[in-house]
């Protein structure tokens, strides 16, 4: 219970998941899905969770899945061929960023044109010129920088101009904002650990200065992310999807 993030935590039970990834694919026009993950436990769990939401009644067909990609693999010739043969029109990856872009680039060069490509992370202006990034969709926990939220404007004002404005640096800022909020809630004259934990957990409208829609620290604790904001790389720029509003799924129990 003393665990806080800037927004909410991840459920420790992998059986508690969300339909968000499946719903995203459908919203973007995909129907046949390929899932490609690495051989490590976190990647395999992530891919298996998503796969479990694409069963009968989901409106999607899971046509290819692998969780056996070695961490150092960069040649995806065999995987590309399997995706081509599967007829997939959507891809969700669970590998590291260089592997994700390598796979996407090789798919493009092989003439495999997908309607939907979703990467698990990489919201950073430095990636926009990397081969394989065009058309990729990213989910982020805060309003895209392109919307110039009040929280981002304040972050941008204080961060030295030679520092990169990306997902990682902003998360650091938001985490510090949350820590400061906890101190205030605990009482600035004599804050205690117990008051910090108890009182911050009672906050019901936390936005970290306008970085995201309000959340309740009590009801969101230990829950899987049901709502995130999405951006798509178009013409070497991040474009907010869904009019910049967060996209939500529904909680669901899965077998992993």
What tags apply to this protein structure?
globular; 256 residues; two-stranded antiparallel sheet; alpha/beta; eight-stranded mixed beta sheet; 33% helix
Please provide a written account of the structure:
The protein is of the alpha/beta class. The protein has 8 helices and 10 strands. Strands 2, 3, 4, 5, 6, 7, 8 and 9 form an 8-stranded mixed beta sheet that branches. It has a two-stranded antiparallel ribbon with strand order 1-10. β7 and β8 form a beta hairpin. α6 packs across α7. The protein is globular and about 65 Å long. The two termini are 25 Å apart. The model has no long low-confidence stretch (mean pLDDT 94).
Strand content: 15-25%
- Overall body shape: globular
Assign a percent range to the helix content: 25-40%
Residue windows where pLDDT falls under 50 for at least 5 positions: none
Integer average pLDDT? 94
Number of strands: 10
Q: Tell me the number of helical segments per DSSP (H or I, 4 or more residues long).
A: 8
Main sheet attributes: strand count, strand direction, barrel closure: 8 strands, mixed
Helices and strands, in N-to-C order?
A: EHEHEHEHEEHHHHEEEE
The radius of gyration is: 19 Å
Structural class: alpha/beta
């Amino acid at each position: 219970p003393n665990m806080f993030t800037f927004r909410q935590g991840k459920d420790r039970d992998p059986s508690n998941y969300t339909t968000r990834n499946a719903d995203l694919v459908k919203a973007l026009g995909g129907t046949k899905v390929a899932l490609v993950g690495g051989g490590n436990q976190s990647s395999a769990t992530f891919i298996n969770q998503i796969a479990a939401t694409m069963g009968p009644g989901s409106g999607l067909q899971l046509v290819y899945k692998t969780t056996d990609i070695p961490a150092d693999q960069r040649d995806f010739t065999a995987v590309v061929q399997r995706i081509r043969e599967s007829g997939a029109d959507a891809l969700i990856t669970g590998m590291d960023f260089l592997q994700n872009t390598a796979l996407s680039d090789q798919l493009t060069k092989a003439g495999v044109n997908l309607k939907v490509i979703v990467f698990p992370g990489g919201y950073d202006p430095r990636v926009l010129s990397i081969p394989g990034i065009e058309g990729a969709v990213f989910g982020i926990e805060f309003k895209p920088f392109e919307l110039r939220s009040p929280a981002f404007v304040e972050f941008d004002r204080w961060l030295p101009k030679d520092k990169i404005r990306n997902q990682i640096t902003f998360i650091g800022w938001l985490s510090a904002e949350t820590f400061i909020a906890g101190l205030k809630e605990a009482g600035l004259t004599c804050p205690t650990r117990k008051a910090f934990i108890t009182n911050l957990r009672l906050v019901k409208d936390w936005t970290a200065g306008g970085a995201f829609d309000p959340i309740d620290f009590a009801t969101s604790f230990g829950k899987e992310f049901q709502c995130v904001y999405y951006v798509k790389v178009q013409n070497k720029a991040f474009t907010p999807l869904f009019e910049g509003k967060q996209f939500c799924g529904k909680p669901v129990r899965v077998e992993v």
